[in-house]
Amino acid sequence: MRIQFLGGVETVTGSQHLIEAGGRRVLRDCGLFQGRRDEARKINTTLRCPPNTLDAVVLSHAHIDHCGNLPMLARGGYTRPIHATTATVELAAVMLRDAARIQEQDAAYLNQKTNRRGIPAVEPLYTSADAEAAIKLFQGHRYGETIEPAPGIKILFQDAGHILGSALNVFELAENGKKARVGFALDLGRKDLPIIRDPETMRDLDLLVLESTYGDRLHDDVARAEDELAAAINRTLARGGKVLIPSFALERAQEILYHLANLFAAGRVKKVPVYVDSPMTVELTRIFARHRDYFDAETQALFDRLGGIMRPDWVHFAATVEESKNITASTVPCVVIAPNGMCEHGRILHHLKHGIENPKNTILIVGFQAENTLGRRLVEGTQHVKIFGDDFTRRAEVVTLNAFSAHADRDELVSYVRQVQPRKIALVHGEPKIRAALATRLRGMQAAPVLEPPTGESVEL
Length: 461
Ligand SMILES: [Zn+2]
Fold this sequence. Notes:
By secondary structure, the chain is of the alpha/beta class.
């Protein structure tokens, strides 16, 4: 019996683990590695285990760094089931179709540029057909359900409290009369996040494989998110401005809707139109609406009162370009939620182009901003920015809310280890320095031996 740390080990993208028992093999997650183009291409095109040797794949959640390379696996000939929760199955389908579209558009764009120079054409990493081939393999399960995709490998799904449908998995392995229980907590969420329930506690683990993304830092308290959001919106509305929120389509956009519903219902913010300007966000929100049984009790009660997450009279879902243009042109105070979350592409750029020079407006940053993105420059207070190649002077207020994070921070990771009390811990899914900081802290607790495996290494059980 062994676990091999194949991807997303000393980095936070491209998550992939191989679990073996009695000659049977299950892959947990097949995430897309995101980084510099050449490096990413090399990593994503290298399948680290031959697809035809796998008995099953289990998927933790619908984020691209966990599901985004499943189409490559299908392209490589994998035809067995991909197990996930019912919500993840639907969300991941939307995410994979979008990822394939981006791969195809990227390749087309590069080829258009290089054709003129006689350089051979690049192929997309994978195509829409590959994505559809992977989507066909999905099988949906509920939290609390245990499956046995191969003799000697049982897998339990528990709530990870990270995004809708996200799962922790306990693998119960058996080989030659020996048994081992391995739990995977990546990605691990936080208590009291909006919409979803809190992370469940895995029990009786010989090995806990744990993420360390934020293993050296603390987030602001979840409870502050709504207060800070209210303050920023009220300030903007008092000026007669618009609130522009660059947001990831999955989870963060729906969280903002949840907070707005709460604030409007309590009369803490004056009701104004809220525009969700993105076909993909609309599609994902519809999936949320269909999975109200994944919501926590508060969210169920709130949206029952409002008739559903899609139904309040103040929310408007813009799918077409025409609808989007009308929102941009309007000067009525409102809230606009639009992707991309880091202001790199997508409809938010049109809203910024028209709104960034207006001092009445607010740009509200609610997510992680990677280096070298427009979002990061805004957070850092840059005054002069380029949008679609044109120069703009930022006069809108920029507000960064740090309470929004779907990942456990240092103290939350430590407290999860205290709850679970595993006999051994393997830290993955973190930059080496950050992972080492968390390892030192956990070792200080003398709770269990802590491993920091390099990429590709295995641990025998
Ligand atoms: Zn995630």
